[in-house]
Amino acid sequence: MRNAYIATLFIVVLTFSILGLRNRTFTKPPMDVFPEWLFPGMKYQPKLTQQQQSPFFADGRSDRPAPPNTVPASFGPAGQGVRSDDFLYRGKLHDGSWARGFPPALTLDMKFMERGRERFTIYCSPCHGAVGDGGGITKKYGMGAVPTYHDDRLRQMAEGEIFNTITNGKGQMNPYGDKLAPRDRWAVIAYVRALQLAQTGTVADVPEDHRAELGLK
Ligand code: HEC
Question: In sequence order, what are the beta bridge partners of 170?
């Protein structure tokens, strides 16, 4: 009989302690079973959240604007573009098709081309080769499936699609979205186009006053 009383009491206490405290708002922090000083974890971290003041920065803001020349790693939740210029940042037109040509915001000049050549040499030539024929140094080490840029498919591929390949990678090719800023990706594409043209160009493409340099008349 005594056991039955104890069991009933136990069940009543258990029921109240689980259900009885629902919807209560507590003003004091809960008791820590495993105190932070004894078991340091990640529950309490020195961090700044949005809208919080920071004595560290001169303007007192804790949410910092992105530093100049940094590469955005994402475009907001679940691929929602937080940037308005799809052409520049995704290589797409508003109807979702691949854009052709270069974003109007960019100036295609010799400086841009030089930048593209430099980035291409660092990031692409190890696989694609200095002239883009797929004969880079990695071929020696077993990277076999690198395509040449000098076939009709890649000559006719929209610039926007190449932009997407650089950003997200394809097959065995890694993504370069975290290594090349969007503008640099476009500069690389301009250089890829120059490499392609270099293989198919004719005398007619050379301005007249430069033909003598090539030994042409
Ligand atoms: C690690 C080696 C490697 C590097 C570095 C590399 N690629 Fe590639 N790339 C590949 C391979 C492999 C493929 C074939 C992918 C496939 O079709 O599966 C490819 C395919 C491509 C294609 C054709 C995509 C298509 O749709 O057929 C383009 C364009 C391209 N790369 C451009 C670049 C540019 C620009 C860079 C430098 C930013 C670069 N790649 C760096 C290995 C590489």
Answer: 173
Give the pLDDT of the chain (217 residues) as one tens digit per residue.
789 999 999 999 998 888 877 777 888 877 777 777 787 777 777 788 778 888 888 999 888 877 776 666 655 444 444 556 789 888 999 888 999 999 998 999 999 999 999 999 999 999 999 999 999 999 999 888 899 999 999 999 999 999 999 999 999 999 999 899 899 999 999 999 999 999 998 888 888 888 888 887 6
Q: Residue whose CA is closest, atom 5 of ligand 1?
A: 124
Using CA positions, which residue lies closest to atom 41 of ligand 1? 124
Cα 195 to middle of ligand 1, angstroms: 15
Q: What is the CATH number of the domain that holds 179?
A: 1.10.760.10
CA of 177 to the centre of ligand 1 (A): 13
Q: In the chain, how many domains are there? A: 1
Ligand 1 centroid distance, CA of 30 (Å): 54
192 lines ligand 1 (CB under 6 A): yes
pTM for the whole structure: 0.70
Residues 6+ apart with CB under 8 A from 185: 163, 166, 167, 176, 177
In terms of residue numbers, what domain contains 155? 84-202
